[in-house]
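S., here's the first fold you wanted:
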Amino acid sequence: MIAAEKYTNETITWSRAWTPNLFSFRLTRSPSFRFTAGQFARLGVRREDSNALDGSGWRIVWRAYSIVSATYHDHLEFCSVLVPEGEFTSELERLTTGDTVYVEKNSYGFLTTERFAPGRDLWMLATGTGLAPFVSILWERDHWRTYENLVVVHSVREGAELAYRDTIASFSSAPEFVSLGAKLRYLPIVTREPYSETLHERIPTLLRKGTLETAADLNLDVARSRLMLCGNPSMIKETRELLAGQGFATPKRLAPGTLAVENYW
């Protein structure tokens, strides 16, 4: 149970269904809520519970969601998968514009570029909704100034799940981002159906074969590459082991790193 003074009541202002089981939504944002691109927020929805200790007949169910929006946007955007009979998403799916979602006042997570040693290429490797923090990172102009190349790799099962594809493409043509210097390389992957202009094997396989570097026209190099992984735990485990073999390492308490990871579920 989270005390009421530790969260705010926010309102759904927009939603979009990418597929029957994948959707995005926006909430109002408290002026006091602060986060770093790549972090996540804890969201709460009300769920009926006849056994609620306070006798109210309901309780708040909490889940962590990476933030899609920029640190300077006046809204908070999130991307979610519907979990069949899921305690949280089954309630979230029923909500519509104007309904309330609770947002804990603190932000969390270490999937941020602040923990990296200086580098020149930022690689962001995601499966499914693990793309969310990387869209937030792309919104931040400082990343376009800091890095020469921004590489977004997004792996999904079906083409319809390539959420934010148009948003990512728009960065490449937006003068306010292009003028800052970095080159954006977007590599979509669809693994379970034929889909044009995408790669088709899992991220660890593409890394092992060198196909990902070829597709990006960019080599992985410990001296200049910084990598962020977010999504399916099996992808992260395999990819992390592969990268460790090439010398990439997560940050330590007193030493910046070259690799940052965030597991989903």
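And the second, which I think is the more interesting of the pair:
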Amino acid sequence: MGESEHPQEPKLNRSLGRLALTWYGVGAIVGGGFYALVGKVVGLAGLYAPVAYLTAASIAFLRALSFGELASRYPFSAGESYYVQEAFARRWLSTLTGWLVISTGVVSAATLARAFAGFGRELGIFAWDDAGVIVAIVVAMGLVAAAGIGESAALVGAITVVEVGGLVWILFVAGGSLGQLPERLPELIPSASAADWSGIFSGAFLCFYGFVGFEDMVNLAEEVRRPKRNVPKAILLALGLTAALYIAVTLAAILTLPQDRLEASDAPLSELLTGSGSRFAMTVIAMLAGVNGALVQIVMASRIVYGMAERGQSPAVFARINGRTQTPLEATAVCSALVLVLALWFPLVTLAEVTSAILLGVFALVNLALWKIKGQTAPPPGSVNHPRAVPLAGFLFSAALLALRAA
């Protein structure tokens, strides 16, 4: 029989290079969560908010090393689920892990959709109520995600230029306050007291959500060229740039404005800018950040649903790839629908805290999985290989932060 009688099944489009993936990762991390929640972190940690962000970034760096190595060893969609299966050979556990990560994706996207509506309400730019705005933005992002990975990455990249530019703009405008840093540094260094560190860890738990996103990059491994090298390097580049921006902007914020003003605002970073035009522009940038994050999470969740369906861990209908768009349309549709339901029913901070809690548990498990894998098998040729202490430290820190929050 001719080849035309047995057409090849459509596959995901392997079109992303290292720079494109890095910028996609920056867009995945620098989302509406930071713009919307930095004031809440200041409310919990006070002047120690930069320490809270540094704490969260340190834990994120450990898990970035682990995720990079795992993606290098196993460059497949549904990464976390695959890693857990390779380590523990427990189908129920890998399936549960996959659905937990999917849940974080849809909850995170719902968080960002709500943040988008909240920013719009503050500006008074929509004629609809929050529910109407949420429906419109989730449907629009679902359609972009369905159109193709090239289209999704292009939109994410374009918005990322704007949102990173917004943070740099804040540093330029409020950067004069950073000149106070040498004289005010003693105020920003926490003591060894339980009260100081309780606030820092509470803030770190919440701002941990601001570092959600780089792990989404591993679930695009089947759409990346030379994934064994490009995915780990892109993860570290994206995380490093984001952490530096977060800490610098948070320092500028607490050195410029009173804590209660930052905590009370729905658009806290806009408070750093003088003039209604500047504040309006910054709030619009924050809205775009929410759009970006929601799109990235929908893409990520749909790829995990697809990857699990490929291995029989979710309904087979979700394993279909559309021949024209080269995307899993059914998986994208169901993830978008779940985002919509959650965004309409739950408040912003609740969604962010739920996302952080689930992710910390998943990250602890994934780090433990890599620790076990490294004790069982040698790394494949050409893959990244870190010391075995790295995933162990990632597991311990993630588990400790989760336990402290639950206490």
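Why I say that: The CA atoms of residues 196 and 286 lie 30 Å apart. The chain is about 70% helix and 0% strand.

Talk tomorrow,
H.
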